[in-house]
Amino acid sequence: MTNAYTFVDGTAPDVRDAALVVMFTGWIDASGAAGAAMATLETECNARTIATFDGDTFIDYRARRPTMELRDGVNTKLTWPDIELKLGHDLDGKAVLLLTGPEPDMAWRRFASEVAALGVTLGVRRMVALGAYPFASPHTRPARLSVSAPSADLVASLHLQKNSVDVPAGVASVLEHAFHDAGIESLGLWVQVPHYIATMAYPAATVSLLAGLGEYGGVRVDGAGPRQETAIQRERLDELVAGNDDHREMVRQLETVYDSVENHPSSDRQFTDAEIPTGDELAAELEQYLRDQNEG
Questions:
Q1: How many domains does the chain have?
Q2: Which has more confidence, 243 or 5?
Q3: What is the dihedral of CA 240, 243, 247, 249, to 10 degrees?
Q4: Beta-bridge mates of residue 135
Q5: DSSP secondary structure of 182-208
Q6: What does pTM read for this prediction?
Q7: Is residue 296 part of a domain?
Q8: Would you say residue 34 lies in a domain?
Q9: Has residue 43 been placed in a domain?
């Protein structure tokens, strides 16, 4: 038994052939799309916590302080930020493991090793990490998914965007390698969020992540809430864009490049920095518009 985590019931539950979905707060998650996807999974899979990881080992409490509940001068309790492993079941009755909470602040290699070993113990068949990043794409098209994985064969087998870039890694990337080394398929599933919406909720991206999770992770949920929110937001966005010639032209440019990539997957056509519409004005107007709508 390791001291890196503790099972809530004292022993590991009987789990077989489960998918493990990973999403940590504090890392790249444009519009909170991945966090919303994880919240949907927790609710629809009726997930319950089966294990918690030792915060003193993996969390810097100066960066992520516990919340003190103060009532009439009485320090009634402290709520600590926890990394938790949860267990639920999807619409098909398949076991789903959810690893969520704040991204560890330290001991990443030990954390990844412990999680991968636990995955082997619990019979995990595939690990899927969720993320979202801002991209020059239009809200009038489906939110595209891209992939990261240590296995070139696995990447080649998936009909998803493949990017080439050097960027700082999150702990989910470390987990990809740890699971791969343990003989378990692992991948990161990333959704592109229109850059002019990246600071506000964008349920369409959550819908794409959930759909991708169903196709590439074998986890099926309904996702009715995000789908309904997507329809409402799309109507508001279209209404706002229609009222401004500059906004319409910006979206048209984004659509042109998006469609070019979709119609010619091998094309590397992208905007140059000078060509990318910033969307700052639209983002500001959209935020104000949504505030006015909510107040109304």
A1: 1
A2: 5
A3: 130
A4: 194
A5: TT-EEEEEEEEEETTTTTS--HHHHHH
A6: 0.89
A7: no
A8: yes
A9: yes
**Encoded tokens for 70:** 């103060």
Residue 230 tokens, joined: 């997507």
Residues sharing a CB contact under 8 Å with residue 229, sequence separation 6 or more, in sequence order: 201, 203
Q: Tell me the per-residue pLDDT of 136-159, one tens digit each, with 9 for 90 and over.
A: 899 999 999 999 999 999 999 998
Domain with 56 in it:
5-222
Backbone torsions φ then ψ of 49, nearest 5 degrees: -70, 130
What are residue 152's phi and psi, to 5 degrees?
Answer: -65, -35
Indicate the helix (H) or strand (E) that contains 75.
Answer: strand 74-79
DSSP for 131-157 reads EEEEES--TTSPPPEEEE-S-HHHHHH
Exposed e or buried b per residue across 18-48, where buried means at least 16 C-beta atoms within 10 angstroms of its C-beta: bbbbbbbeebebbbbbbbbbbbbbbebbebe
Strand partners, 188: 129, 148
Residue 262 maps to a domain: no
Residue 273 has pLDDT above 50, yes or no: no
Q: What is the CATH number of the domain that holds 195?
A: 3.40.50.10900
Q: Rounded distance, CA 225 to CA 241, Å?
A: 24
Helix, strand, coil % over all residues of the chain, rounded to 5: 40, 25, 35
User: Quick one: pLDDT band at residue 274, thresholds 50, 70, 90?
Assistant: very low
